[in-house]
Amino acid sequence: MRVAYSVETVRAAERALMARVPEGALMQRAAAGLAAACANALGTGGGVYAARVVVLTGSGDNGGDALYAGARLARRGAGVTAVLLAPQKAHRGGLAALRAAGGRAVTPEDVDAVALVHRADLVLDGIVGIGGKGGLRPGAVPLAEAARASRAVVVAVDLPSGVDADTGEVRGAAVRADMTVTFGTYKPGLLVDPAAEHAGALRLVDIGLGPDLDGTPPALEALQHADVAALLPVPDAESDKYRRGVVGVVAGSERYPGAAVLAVAGALRAGAGAVRYVGPGAQAVLARFPETLVSAGPPHKAGRVQAWVVGPGLGDGPEARRAVDDVLASDVPVLVDADGLRLLDRDVVRSRTAGTVLTPHAGEAAALLGVAREEVEAARLDHVRRLAGAFGATALLKGSTTLVASPEPGVPVRVNPTGTSWLATAGSGDVLSGITGSLLAAGLAPRDAASVGAYLHGLSARVAAGPVGAPVAAHDVAAALPGAWRDIRS
Ligand SMILES: NC(=O)C1=CN([C@@H]2O[C@H](COP(=O)(O)OP(=O)(O)OC[C@H]3O[C@@H](n4cnc5c(N)ncnc54)[C@H](OP(=O)(O)O)[C@@H]3O)[C@@H](O)[C@H]2O)[C@@H](O)CC1
Ligand SMILES: [K+]
């Protein structure tokens, strides 16, 4: 499991650890890891010797890390220039170390710092780290833009400056890095968009915080292959289709029969023993998947199911509304997606005894919460938590970084690491609904079903897109599911 802790937790762990180690030891560990990562990045170009390194230096310890790392690179022959954005407050020890190693420090008043950045091979962003508030200050903006436009490798120290470490929000200008070297633990902002888009590749440097973080719940977690492998519902010798779980799918309409086919396609390959379909798309579903059990409805008369999926392509007429109400009145877990989300009654969802999973994209989440879509996109972590709390349900917010929040406070939000932009294709959400419903029917808890569903869905798209990448259609994603399972279980 990859985990991310809040700034408050990181600070508390750092205080506890600092009391046990010599002064400055943590910063030296951070700087050593940072310099090694920079040397590695330069190694793929011309190497460290004679490389032109610019260290953008702010007023705090983040700048200190960057200066000490700059000193290490200077000792290996790099030409290192620190640009001091707050000359009076720059880290004294770091500055002395850089000078002693042959590096120099300048201010934007003395030199054309933008031109320096343009000529650099590597730019270290030590403007601000976990002590930052808001976007970049005006003096730093042209330097961040120059770094982005230049051919230099841009390495962010701990966090890309200007992004919010705890929320993943970017309220103003921010550095765009090729790589972020972070210390002790990931921070939520490194894993959640829009901030995560600024971070580039992530490197974690161990500074010994582990024992002081253990026991505190992380703010965020990301499943990895091994976690998913342990959660996948694998049949045993005793299994039959009912024990493996039957998932009921209420989806599609005369107008959108394809949504029914795609939701069933996902459901058939995600772990349940059987898929029951209820709705007007039965013919289309059977033509493609003869193994589906179909019935004319209403859902509660369809026979035994262990979980329902309701909503994809359903439309919003009276029949759709009746189907949503019918399914929500059941005492098994229910996943509500797409059109179903527009027909939800918050109090009905809140009063359910079995789990409910809501799977909106940003626009649907905005409508459910009565806010603008842009607000959801700008503050995804905040809104997925609010959604789960407001509806007393598990909320899966789709997007470039899909998030899963539980209604209970204090439970870490899960962020999906397998997403890919190839998934931005019509019908892909219908497949995800089917997959996640299937996992619910197989007995996974709502939070596990939603996060494993998102993981499988993303991985299948990657499998379908291939190593180089190529467009995939939603049905390709469903067809690639067995390949994704094998990859996870191997
Ligand atoms: N603690 C540890 O053990 C370890 C910590 N480590 C490192 O320390 C970093 C945290 O250091 P930190 O606490 O000094 O905060 P930091 O992020 O450098 O900011 C400082 C000052 O910046 C300012 N400022 C605020 N917003 C701003 C903005 N938008 N744009 C520009 N400036 C802004 C504001 O000061 P002001 O200018 O308002 O006086 C604020 O006080 C951490 O990220 C990691 O790199 C590692 O060495 C491992 C061990
Ligand atoms: K930084």
From TrEMBL:
Cofactor binding mode, per the note? Binds 1 potassium ion per subunit.
Q: Which GO terms describe its molecular function?
A: ADP-dependent NAD(P)H-hydrate dehydratase activity; ATP binding; kinase activity; metal ion binding; NAD(P)HX epimerase activity
**Cofactors, names only:** K(+); Mg(2+)
Instruction: Say yes or no: keyword Kinase present.
Output: yes
Residues reported to bind AMP: K398, G399, S400, T401, T402, G429
Question: According to its UniProt record, which protein family does this protein belong to?
Answer: In the N-terminal section; belongs to the NnrE/AIBP family. Belongs to the NnrE/AIBP family.
> NCBIfam families under this entry?
yjeF_cterm (TIGR00196), yjeF_nterm (TIGR00197)
> What protein is this chain from?
Bifunctional NAD(P)H-hydrate repair enzyme
